[in-house]
Amino acid sequence: MNKVEEFNAYRSKMNEKILAADNKVIKRIFNLDTNTYAEGALDTKTKELLGLVASMVLRCDDCVKYHLEKCHEIGFDKNQMFEAFAVANLVGGTIVIPHLRRAVEFWEDLEDNKND
Length: 116
What we know:
Layout: H1 3-20, H2 24-36, H3 44-58, H4 61-74, H5 78-92, H6 97-115
Helix pairs in contact: 3-4, 3-5, 4-6
């Protein structure tokens, strides 16, 4: 199982467990998260880039992976991702570099899966 499949399997399994607890507040947070990235005054493509950059600056690897996969699905290319990575590193500083490394590795896995 590669990194993308492993991440998605774990995320799905844990989300099912979390939502099965039927906590109203957590369910609302999950729903709010989903609705935030829907088309609106800003298009989904822009919102995913915002989410990716914010996730890198906040140093949340799971969030970075999630937004990378969404960006990949939408059709961003490597050059566009590296421009977003540059913004994240400028805003977040050098502490973001380890997350950049993992983001590049995950992006490569997404690209490899596309070619399979």
